[in-house]
Amino acid sequence: GVQWAVAHGAQVINLSMTTPAENADLSDAIEAAVHAGVTVVVAAGNAGEPVGYPGASAPDAITVGSVDTSGNRYSWSNYGPWVSAVAPGVLQATTSYGKLVNAVGTSASAGYVSGQVARALQCRPALTPAQARSLASAGTLPTC
User: Fold this and answer.
1) How far apart, in whole angstroms, are the C-alpha atoms of residue 144 and residue 141?
2) Complete DSSP assignment for 122-144
3) What is the pTM of this model?
């Protein structure tokens, strides 16, 4: 899927998923995407432990953890040095099977950051994945 998205012109890829073990093919695809100029955002995971995969094996991706409305890490949000950004992890409105629902977890947080990166690219089309990662980490992604 990552390779397909890159081949079809994606500028931002959201991976709201985790895997129980490292998958070299997935890690390689993420790194190749970033090196091709595509910003990749991955969910940190919801086990309340150090970040798993693909976040821990894709250092150039933006790995996103979840925080509450006070900015505190949720106990179930994965954590560690691979988390490069955080975003709200509860009450994120989304659609599911044709209905509006509230999403919970780092998948919701990753979706939030992916949207922020896409919006930043509207303002600054030359924004590189490394710059997006740095700005997301600082919480200073530009908006138009």
Assistant:
1) 10
2) HH-TT--HHHHHHHHHHT-----
3) 0.92
